[in-house]
Amino acid sequence: SLRFNRLRLNGFKSFVDPTDLIIHEGLTGVVGPNGCGKSNLLEALRWVMGENRPTAMRGGGMEDVIFAGTSTRPSRNFAEVALVIDNEDRLAPSGFNEADTIEITRRITRDAGSAYKANTRDVRARDIQMLFADASTGAHSPALVRQGQIAELINAKPKSRRRILEEAAGISGLYQRRHEAELR
Ligand code: ATP
Ligand code: MG
């Protein structure tokens, strides 16, 4: 699996000022008062891994992740999130395996959509989604437990519960590839 070292946010939701989070080994918990941005942090992590469903970001449109402004601060024109991944063991898939760390960056600009980079190279959303799907840590990963998700899992229909388990088993990347092969 891929080890996350850092999460950097800039203009993402309530994180208007550049914020650099160091992620240590083991389980990470986020605590703080209501509205301080705990859920936004988790959404930033999903977003940089290629999340493309606005509903998963609690917004109406993809641009809603950009800092919208407050009574004292103007809105921003872009949001950027970077995820720094440890690759000292050089276990990353080919195409991502050229350095000791992989820095995945996603940036959204108003009216211009999202762009992704892996270190300095431009990559497609799909490349990023596949990287994390194979490592079973992707945007829809069961390793990230959203607020209210435990109750959802308990109440889920068998089909969607199966999807969650497949994601945990790391085989969802295979399904995606089969689906694309069938379309060809
Ligand atoms: P709780 O403990 O209630 O779950 P939380 O710590 O999870 O709270 P979040 O939901 O992450 O808090 O953060 C909510 C805050 O983020 C709100 O103040 C909201 O106004 C702010 N916010 C969300 N999107 C944006 C945006 N695009 N621009 C500016 N602020 C935003
Ligand atoms: Mg929350």
Automatic annotation (TrEMBL):
It is found in: Cytoplasm. The gene is smc. It comes from the Bacteria. ATP binds at residues 33-40. It comes from Pseudorhodobacter antarcticus. Belongs to the SMC family. Contains large globular domains required for ATP hydrolysis at each terminus and a third globular domain forming a flexible hinge near the middle of the molecule. These domains are separated by coiled-coil structures. Required for chromosome condensation and partitioning. Homodimer. This is Chromosome partition protein Smc.
